């Protein structure tokens, strides 16, 4: 069970005044999150404020220097380059490899991206947002070769979000996909899902990519404050 820090994502510049948008800001922010208890980092490198897979080299290097020994992951979201061939070409050209990368199973090219990451020696976080994603994932020949599975729910109605998460978990169980699970929500469901992950003894993630408030609804000062709050939950004894 770990708490991963997701420090920026695709959030716009005005989402939060402490949103890190360049390599040095991400490195500084990441170090603060690790000091607050984050075990790993998930970042969306940017070039002049725009998400960019080509910015992975410089960003991963900066973050690795600031957080030696901490595993660093990046997104491979199809929207970042908005071109299948360019996405593959940029990943194939990475020189400063992340420790892992997330792949969204809702995206058509996900199996090819996963295979490319395997060839490059980069761990895979398989992102499942729906039951359909989970069914696709367990049908892949190499589904047992991922680092972990992300159950990542965007649904804002909590009851519906919980139903989807439990449905995904059931598909994984039936399909024999027994990889570590990281569960996270978004915005309204962040903290209920942190609590659920804690009870399930799964990992979770928090940070400005997923939401800017603390469990009491107050806007957090920064990513480190969000991480510290989640770590406090995870350090408590799980409820039966």
TrEMBL record:
InterPro entries: Aldolase_TIM, BKACE. It comes from the Bacteria. This is 3-keto-5-aminohexanoate cleavage protein.
């Amino acid at each position: 069970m770990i708490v991963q820090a997701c420090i920026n994502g695709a959030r716009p510049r005005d989402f939060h005044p402490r949103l890190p948008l360049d390599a040095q800001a991400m490195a500084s922010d990441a170090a603060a999150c690790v000091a607050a208890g984050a075990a790993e980092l998930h970042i969306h490198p940017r070039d002049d404020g725009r998400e960019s897979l080509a910015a992975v080299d410089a960003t991963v290097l900066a973050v690795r220097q600031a957080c030696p020994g901490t595993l660093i992951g990046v997104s491979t979201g199809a929207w970042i380059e908005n071109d299948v061939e360019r996405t593959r070409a940029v990943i194939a050209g990475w020189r400063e490899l992340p420790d892992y990368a997330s792949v969204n199973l809702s995206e058509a090219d996900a199996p090819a991206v996963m295979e490319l990451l395997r060839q490059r020696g980069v761990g895979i976080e398989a992102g499942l947002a729906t039951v359909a994603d989970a069914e696709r994932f367990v049908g892949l020949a190499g589904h047992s070769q991922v680092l972990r599975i992300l159950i990542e729910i965007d649904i804002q109605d909590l009851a519906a979000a919980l139903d989807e998460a439990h449905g995904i978990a059931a598909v994984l169980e039936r399909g024999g996909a027994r990889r570590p699970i990281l569960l996270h929500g978004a915005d309204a469901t962040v903290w209920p899902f942190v609590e659920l992950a804690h009870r399930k003894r799964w990992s979770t993630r928090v940070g400005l990519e997923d939401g800017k408030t603390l469990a009491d609804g107050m806007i957090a000062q920064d990513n480190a404050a969000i991480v510290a709050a989640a770590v406090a939950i995870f350090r408590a004894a799980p409820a039966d």
